[in-house]
Specification:
Elements (H helix, E strand, L loop, with lengths): L7 E2 L5 E2 L5 H12 L3 H15 L12 H15 L7 H4 L7 E6 L3 E8 L2 E9 H11 L2
Antiparallel strand pairs: 1-2, 3-4, 4-5
The structure holds zinc ion.
Length: about 140
């Protein structure tokens, strides 16, 4: 004697096997998995804000593309890659300081300590000029 499974009618109007409606269960799951675009944007913003905590120097308030460029340079310096043209970018006002251009308008300032470059600030072109004028001997 075989018992055949009968499709039931659920309160929602769907028909199917089991205790609850599979079609509705799947629809609910899809809804929960669907990411709201607004939420995604907030998460991306939060991730971007959090990413500054990992930087060795303060990069907040800089344009995004400068932040990315600065991080690439910082990573290279961290890996001990000797910066090319060190002579060209050595600051004439203070020989222990190196400025690495970031884009056209920003400079990453580093102290030279032995063979290593110790980054300490990113300045805009204007801020850098002001800073350079104030400290130049
Ligand atoms: Zn249903």
């Amino acid at each position: 004697m075989t018992r055949r499974k009968h499709r039931k009618s659920f309160a929602c109007g769907h028909r199917g096997l089991g205790q609850t409606c599979q079609a509705c269960r799947q629809a609910t799951q899809r809804q929960q998995q669907a990411v709201h675009p607004q939420r995604l944007q907030q998460q991306q913003k939060q991730r971007w804000r959090d990413s500054f905590k990992d930087d060795p120097i303060d990069l907040t308030g800089l344009p995004k593309h400068i932040v990315r460029q600065a991080r690439q340079v910082l990573q290279k310096l961290d890996q001990g890659i000797h910066y090319k043209h060190l002579q060209d970018i050595r600051w004439h006002g203070d020989r222990s300081v190196v400025r690495i251009p970031l884009g056209r308008n920003y400079r990453l300032l580093c102290h030279i300590s032995g063979q290593a470059l110790q980054p300490y600030a990113v300045l805009s072109h204007e801020a850098y000029n002001k800073y350079a004028r104030g400290t130049r001997r």
